[in-house]
Amino acid sequence: METTDPAAVAAASVPGTIFGLIVGVLMIVALWKIFQKAGEPGWASIIPFYNTFTLFKIAGLNPWLFLLLLIPFVNIVVAIWVALKLGAAFGKSGVWSFFLLVVFSLIGWLILGFGSDSYRKPVTV
Fold first, then answer.
1. Rounded distance, CA 98 to CA 83, Å?
2. Which residues contact 102 (CB under 8 A, 6 or more apart)?
3. What is the CA radius of gyration of the chain?
4. Which of 8, 103, 104, 105 has the most beta carbons within 10 angstroms of its beta carbon?
5. Phi, psi of 92 (to 5 degrees)
6. Which DSSP string corresponds to the chain?
7. Whole-prediction pTM
8. How far is it, in rounded angstroms, from Cα 112 to Cα 86?
9. What Å distances lie between residue 103 and 37, 79, 99, 114, 115, CA to CA?
10. One digit per residue, pLDDT tens: the chain, 125 residues?
11. How far is CA 87 from CA 90, 111, 118, in A?
12. Half-sphere exposure of 65 (CA within 13 A, CB side)
């Protein structure tokens, strides 16, 4: 019978927690800058659900479609769709949007937020 030392478990989880916090803060900062570029208030990036509602609006989609993210498996397709539409709103190609906003999302979101690309208001669907 193997016993697990709670202190060892806690110590092992600290690096993952710190990494998660750093990624979370960077995503909020990137989203803040994207919102500002699109003419939305940056503080909206820190409000749960409202930030997703605003992101759908920036991407040119009906903001209430964000509720589709609550449906398992549908949420994956919708998240990719939003990423592609968001990239297009900043003049990025579908391939760029897929790889940098879906696959390597942190990098892509930071590029959109801090890059020189300007927001082009898409036609709302």
1. 7
2. 79, 80, 83, 108
3. 17
4. 105
5. -95, 150
6. -----HHHHHHHHHHHHHHHHHHHHHHHHHHHHHHHHTTS-GGGGGSTTHHHHHHHHHTTS-GGGGGGGGSTTHHHHHHHHHHHHHHHHTT--HHHHIIIIIITHHHHHHHHHHSSPPP-PPPP-
7. 0.84
8. 9
9. 23, 12, 5, 19, 19
10. 565 778 877 777 888 899 999 999 999 999 999 999 999 999 999 999 999 999 999 999 999 999 999 999 999 999 999 999 999 999 999 999 999 999 999 999 999 999 998 998 876 65
11. 5, 11, 11
12. 18
Tokens of 124: 């709302």
Can you read off the two tokens belonging to residue 32? 């803040």
Q: Considering only CA atoms, which of 39, 28, 26 is closest in space to residue 107?
A: 26
Cα distance between residue 19 and residue 22, in whole Å: 5
Task: Return the amino acid letter for 11.
Answer: A
Q: CA-to-CA distance for 15 and 121, rounded, in angstroms?
A: 40
